[in-house]
Every structure is written in structure tokens, then in C-alpha cells.
Amino acid sequence: MAQITLSNLAHTYVPGGAHESDFALKTLNHVWEEGGAYALLGPSGCGKTTLLNIISGLIMPSHGRVLFDGVDVTALPAEKRDIAQVFQFPVVYDTMTVRENLAFPLKNRGLAMPDIQARVALIAEMIGLESVLDQRARGLTADAKQKISLARGMVRESVNAILFDEPLTVIDPQLKWELRTQLKSLHREFGHTMIYVTHDQVEALTFADTVVMMHEGRVLQMGTPESLFETPAHTFVGHFIGSPGMNFFDAQIEGCDAMIYGQRIPLGRRYKSLSGRTQVGIRPEYIQFTKEGGLPAVIKHIEDVGRRRIVHAEVAESLVKVSVPDGYSFDTTMDRIRFNPDKINIFVDGWRTEGEAL
Amino acid sequence: MAKTQNNKAWLFVLPVLVLVAFSAVIPLMTVVNYAFNDTFGNNQFFWNGLGWFEEMVRSERLHDALGRQIVFTVIILAIEVPLGIFIALCMPKRGFLASLCLVLMALPLLIPFNVVGTIWQIFCRIDIGLLGRAMSALGVDYNYTSDAFDAWVTLIVMDVWHWTSLVALLCYAGLQSIPSAYYQAARIDQANRWDIFRYIELPKMSGVLLIAILLRFIDSFMIYTEPFVVTGGGPGNSTTFLSIDLVKMAIGQFDLGPAAAFSLMYFLVILLISWVFYSVMVARDAGEEG
């Protein structure tokens, strides 16, 4: 286990690329604490897999350094870094049995046979592979193969970190949930540093203590799932996290009020004069229907998403989504929406700005 | 449930039936006819039962040719398969060099068989051939027209030159289809080069490799043109393989009865071995799907 430090790290796949658009990963400084459970969250092509492969040593970064416990490992190849990695699609050694698959990384590191057997048995039990241990990997289902990949990632006791690259993509939804819980408990039990790449916010928010949100090769925000939800650092984070994402309105900010479509909306904080494009962001969960005050809204349609209902409404020319509990009774006289002032975030040119307390 | 009957549909099958009849069935039945009959000319045939087959099965000449054939096929498979795999592993994976390699490797496969034979026939001649002259100049006692061993070496080298590309290209295609995650996982698992070959590359290309072996087996077991052009089956009978012997018997000596019996048995042997290969491949694929 180790603390992993990324220092001025950046990467371009274009040889000699210097222009900002050449960089798959823009300059970034970050410390992954020992024993943490991290999620790297972002849409496809945002550079999260590149970052993961740089940490594991499969890619040599074009700029900056990677340090494990303060030791520079930038030039060390993957096989020398003592890292475990699980890939998006199952990687199994077809001709080996499941048991041999799990034992393989241990055998290559010269562990004694009894230790290998004990470790393999333990991990197989936790991942749920006991019943197929002596079958050949070739004939198994995609689910089972990915379980083998996961187990092979977990099987080594002393690793600096375990990296997961969207490992549950090919897994059935039901089993997905099970395995995610399993990974979480494995993390609690062994305390490995784990970095989990995903584009699925539910996976990221349930697995990780700290979520690193990436977009277009840049880290937008790093924090607890709660902080990403409540105080997104960038409109993209607000948009990406939550289902549905945050609502945004262009607004003029005047002290502790916002003017939206000519209506005065009270804010929970005071803002100095802001320049640039200013936006008000509010989560669908923090909007209520009301008789007076707020903004006039016309309900367009209502979407049932299980325990909650999503109301799609129109405010002037923009669409707004409001989340109401199941069983909520609509009242036609409640034709305005009110924002919870404490839950309003203000963004300037896309980035969140912190106001002063009232 | 009333079945729709429309006998006109048979008309559509007719062209194919005619084509297959003339291209395969009738010629084959002619051979079968010769195999079971004897004739003293005048197009008069006498039933001979299994006579020709018995004669052929006991024929020392056929035993010798079969023995030579098996030795030849085993030798070229033993050389071309490992060499083809090795070349495929060494070929660059992408870029200009990869394309160049593919073109160069494909070249021998594009040359007509008798041209290959002629090239090597001239190349190896000790009077005017580059290789033959060079060997003589180096003091090597080499002459494929008089020495059986030299003739064999020449034919084997020629076949390896001509056909290793096929094995290499098929294996290369198999290797190219392996996702890079396998190699990355192997690095992280600290697998050595041999392990990567044995546990990743070989299993992943075993399907195409089986096809390559099957093709090389069939082709080499039926080899005719190249040895015929280079050595004509000689010196003596030392490079007379089954096909060459068959043609000698059928067209050289005009022993159509024995030759027909011989070719039927030859055909059945190849069919049998191909069927074994096919069954192995199907069983393997079934195992894959689990």
C-alpha cells in the first residue's frame, strides 16, 4: 500500500504535441492517500483511462512525475510497480483453470505454494468463485470471466494500489450491485488503495469515499459524493451528477438576490459584483411548487422514475426539472416554483463561486 | 397443416445439379467405374470386384510412395508450423513496416506452382543456377539431379519458401485479434515471454493455427507440380510422392484400373484426415461457447 502522488502530470498522445488540445490529460497535481477508495468519474474520452494507465505504468506520461510513497516511479514499467489492475473486458487465461488463473500472479512472484492456496481460496470465496475453481476458464460466462479478472486483481496481498477500469461494464445489473458491495467490503477488510474508473455516477458515488470528476482531460472537482452533489465546482459537474442533473438559469446577481426573467429570487449568500456569464444552479430536489413568489412555471409532463416523479416544466423559454416524491398531489393553483435559497449555487463562466454568509 | 407443394421449385435446383454432375459426380463415377472393372481395350469392361484394390494395397511401390509422402508431409509441417508462428510473432504489429512485411510475405503465395518449381529448378542447377553454382564454389557436394538427399533438401526448402507465409499470415491474423488488455494484464501479473506465448497467444491463435495445419497437410499430401518440375520424382524414385506415382501409373503406363483404385483410396485417406481435423475444430469451438 502506498500514497500515490501525481506531480505536474500531463499526457499527450501526439508526439511533440504542445497545443492544449493535443493533451489527453491536462496538467494535474494530486495525492491519492494510502488506503483510500477513489472513483474517477467522467464521460467517455475524458482521459480517465489514460490517467489510470499512467498510474499503473502501462503508459509513460509525456510530462510530470508519478511518485509512490515519495519515490519517483515515472520510468518504472507496469510489471515493476506492484500494482493490480482490472480491465473493462474480462481478461482470463483461457487454458488455465479458474484456480490457476488466480494463482498465476502469485506464482510469478514466487510465493510459497501453501500461501498461494490459502490466498486463492479466500479471494474465491469472497468473489463467489468457489464452485467453479477447478473448471477451465474458457467455457465460463462473461460474468464469471469478469469475476476471475476481479479476483486476480484482488489476490495479491501487498500491492501499492488496485486499479479498476470500468470493471462492471459487462456484468448483469443484479450481479453488478452485488459485486460493487463485495468490492466495498474487500476494501474495508484489506484497506488497499483503490482507484475505480467509471462513467456511471451511481457506481462512483456508492463505491468511493472521494470522487474525482473529470471532463476533457481536466479534473473539475475532487470531493466526497455529497460535496459533488451539493456544491459542484463546475456546471458540468452539476449537470453530470444527479438524475436528472442540476437546472441552470442565466441570471444577474445583485448582492443576495438573483434576477431571473425579471423575477427577484432570494439567495442564501451574498455575492460581490460578478463579471462574466453568471448562472444560478439548483438541483431538482430543492425546488418546490408554490402559490406565490418564485418563478411562474408551466408543467409540460411528468415522468415516473420509481420512488420519485420528475416534473418537466417550462419557465419562460427554459426547461426546468423538478423532483417530487411519489404520491405528491398536484394543485393547479400552485403554478410557481420556489428555490431553496441555501441550496442555490452561483456559477461564473462555468465555475462555482463562493459567496459570503449573510 | 397443409404443406405447400410446388414442384416447379425443383427447376431452380436443376442448373446446380447439372453443374455438379458434370464437374464432380460424373468424373468421380468414371473413376469408380475404372476401379471395379478391367478392360482389354475396345471399350469392353469386365467386372473385377475388389481386385485392383487388393493389388494396390499389397503394392510395394505404393507403400514406398506413401512412406515418402508421410515423411515429406511430417517434415514440412514440423518446419513450417513453428517457423510460421515464429515469423508471425516477429512481424511488426502496425505502421508502414507491417504493411511491407505483409506484402513481402504474401508474394510467394501469389506465384503459380509450376513457376515456383521452375524458379527453384533453375536456381539450384549446378551449371547455371545461382545457388547450385555457389554451393559448388564453396566446395559443397550438391547436386539434386543425382543425389537423393540433395533432392529432398531442395524440395523441402522450396516448400518452406513457398508455404511458410501461409502459416505466418494466418497466425499473424490470429495474433492481431488479441486485445491489448491481455498483454497489459500479463505485464501486471509479471508473466514472462514464454508464459505470454503459452497462455495468451497460443490459445488465442489455436483456431487459425488448426486451419493452417489442415491446409498445409492437405496441400503437402497432394503435392505434385513443384517436385514434378524440379526433380520429376527422381533421382530414381526417391522423390516420387503419391500424386506423382499416381500420374505415372495412370498416364505413363496407362494402368487405369489400379490407378483408379489407388486414387479412390488416396481420396478417402485425405477425406478421413480432414474430417478428423474438422471434428476437432468443431469440438473446440463448442468448448469455447461453453
Structural account:
The complex is a heterodimer of chains A (358) and B (290). Chain A is 24% helix and 35% strand. Chain A is globular. Chain A has 2 domains: 237 residues, Rossmann fold (3-Layer(aba) Sandwich); 111 residues, OB fold (Dihydrolipoamide Acetyltransferase, E2P) (Beta Barrel), CATH 2.40.50.140. Chain A has 358 residues and is of the alpha+beta class. Chain B is mostly helical and 290 residues long. Chain B has a two-stranded antiparallel ribbon. The model of chain B has no long low-confidence stretch (mean pLDDT 87). Chains A and B meet through strand 6 and helix 2 of A and helix 8, helix 9 and helix 12 of B.
Strand and helix layout:
The complex is a heterodimer of chains A (358) and B (290).
Chain A: E1 4-12, E2 23-32, E3 37-41, H1 48-56, E4 63-68, E5 71-72, E6 83-86, H2 98-108, H3 113-127, H4 142-154, E7 161-165, H5 173-190, E8 194-198, H6 201-207, E9 210-215, E10 218-223, H7 225-230, H8 235-240, E11 247-250, E12 252-260, E13 263-271, E14 278-282, E15 287-290, E16 295-296, E17 298-304, E18 308-315, E19 318-325, E20 336-339, E21 345-348, E22 351-353, E23 356-357
Parallel strand pairs in A: 3-8, 3-9, 6-7, 7-8
Antiparallel strand pairs in A: 1-2, 1-4, 4-5, 9-10, 11-14, 12-13, 13-23, 14-21, 15-20, 16-20, 17-18, 18-19, 21-22
Chain B: H1 9-36, E1 37-39, E2 45-47, H2 51-58, H3 60-90, H4 96-110, H5 113-123, H6 130-137, H7 148-176, H8 180-188, H9 193-221, H10 225-230, H11 242-252, H12 256-289
Antiparallel strand pairs in B: 1-2
Helix pairs in contact in B: 1-12, 2-12, 3-7, 3-9, 4-7, 7-9, 9-12, 11-12
